[in-house]
Design brief:
Length: 178
Amino acid sequence: MPGEAASAPHEVAGTVKWFDAVKGFGFILDDAGGPDILLHANVLRNFGQGSVADQAQIRVTVQMTPRGAQAVEVLEIQPPEGESLVPIEDLGENASAEIAALPLEPARVKWFEKAKGFGFANVFERAEDVFIHMEVLRRSGFADLAPGEAVCLRVVDGKRGRMAAQVLAWDAGLKSGR
């Protein structure tokens, strides 16, 4: 309805129904049963991520507009849960607490190819690249990475070199205090 004002923003918890970084948007299912919520790529980028994994848990500020419910700010993203996790060879049996205790390393994505299932990032002031496996990316709550995207990594030494054990949005890494 033209001229109809948008409602005041309110917080909503939900699940990412789907997100397509190429299209620049996706939808969130409201845990309380409200209407689907539009998640625009710009709102996600303001949080520090260029993508989000399907089925990830998400907390957002939502505003009702004449065109429907729209996320205006991402507050938190948690990786998808409940799926059986296939072990990643180089990560061994590292528990999530052990991985969380690793230092955060600022990095830029060199390249990532979703179809191949892996990519690489350059860590600030380090010569060697860090391998990023698609499964680690998905477990970290991402669906894809773009070249040049700033991220924070928790890195382990694998059989073939350094590899990411966790990927965090740049802003999320900064908020955790490194």
